[in-house]
Amino acid sequence: MQVLQKLSFLIYLRKTRKSEKGIAPIYVRISIDGLRDEIATGISLPEQAWDAERKVIRTTFPGAVNLNKRLIKIQADLEQHFNILKAQFEAVTPAQVKNNYKTPINAQAIEKDKEDNLSLSEQLDALITKYLTHNDDYLKAYAFDAVPSEEKNKQLQQTFKHLRVSLESLTFFANKIFDNKKHKKTFLLAINEYLLNFLQLCLAGKRSPNSLEKMIGRKKRYQSFIFYRYKKHDLFLEEMQYNFISDLHKYQLTHFGVGNNTASKYSQSIKEIFDRAVANGWISSNMFTLFKCGYKNPIPSWPTMEQMHNMKELVFEKGMLNEVRDVFLFGCYTGLSYLELFNLSAKDIVKGFDEKLWINTNRQKSSNEEAVPLLPPAIKLLDKYSDHPVCVRRNRLLPVPTNQAYNRALKEVAAAAGIKIKLNTHKARFFFANEIAFNNGVELKTVSRMLGHTSVKTTEVYVWANKKNISESMEKVADKLIDDDGEFKRHSKRTINKNQSVDIERTKTTNPLKVIHLSK
After folding, report:
1. What are the pLDDT digits (tens) for 1-26?
2. pTM value?
3. How far is the C-alpha of 59 from the C-alpha of 470, rounded, in Å?
4. What is the Cα–Cα distance from 476 to 458, expressed in whole angstroms?
5. Which of 1.20.140.10, 2.60.40.1840, 1.10.443.10, 1.20.1300.10 is the CATH number of 305-469?
6. Separation in Å, CA 339 to CA 159, 229, 319, 365
């Protein structure tokens, strides 16, 4: 745990070491929480040239301007060494700052750190590229419910095994850098630590390769910004300032023409990366915590209940379109994501406490439990495909094609059903959250649980009040407040507080509320 410490400096003329000619050296006293140490500045001058009150060299002394700048730089360098030590140790002493300042900078060590950083970055980028290529090959091998040959399947397994071995080797190399407190940590090193952790989760099946691919793209964008803004290829963490993230946000908007939400996602990733750097002890705090990303949730759209009925009644000549339509409908009935639909198996269907069938599974994205009672139309779809060849071969409950094929087929389904919006699994989840659950009285917390969300705030992005909700809510208000004559219902007594009440007589005069008496 980092300790809050107060650092201060005192520049003074050390008269006790004055020479026979009256020349005395200037010292800097380093004070940290009551502890002190001193360091010589290498500057000596006559006593009359020193302004003891202002702690500066008088301008009448030759070279005073440059010497005063040198004193200011010494203080700045000492403070920088203090910050570097704070990133490595819980508490820092003046002696540590002094010794760290006096130790000559080892150019060879710094160059070695740069080489290690570059090597790690290049190896990690190459490994991620190989993993993404392998993932594409795997998806293509099983595209359109194809069964890869034994040779192809063996090749995929060997490639995956090689990826795991390479990842272990790279992790061992990276940990030596991450755990070395003397190794000066940089911004790109923090990005690579984040990416390495993400890659490990991807190979373990805990995170999506698509998200990893987005992060690689963001890393390249960060690198281009650093060179544009600072004319460097990397930055030390301790030298980064708050304006980095605000300048990055503006850079995205002005140079690439992205929307505010896209630019905000880049900034949000920066905040997550720095949170990990703090957790690893590389820096004492995340300076970007206060930056507001300003993400604005776009107004979502989803099919209406009438459109879903029309879609359900369609019969397509292509058998695959009928299957995709049914998979989409099942997503609308349950709120499952694409991956959950793809992996849904018999073990995920359980009999609940109410003796009814439930889907009980964990979301890959959040690892939260999704518990959804199955509606009769959803059960009928499961029965419909219980003997489907693809389901039997995969040991799955639904014949879900690859994501690309699924989205491509949904375009044809939407066109045939006269649905103008772009259909995907997110639209199905929106439909379930609103048309199935929220519009029919299900509480927001319950909707959140069924969708497998970590926070109700996430669910609020899915659930939107519409005119139907407003109308039904106002009907309930009218039932409580309006009488048969279309007027507000009358109340004979209103409570003021625990000890007083007032009887109110309602009249049709200009003063509708006439106080009769006050009783206690």
Report:
1. 567 889 999 999 999 988 888 899 99
2. 0.56
3. 76
4. 28
5. 1.10.443.10
6. 23, 40, 22, 10
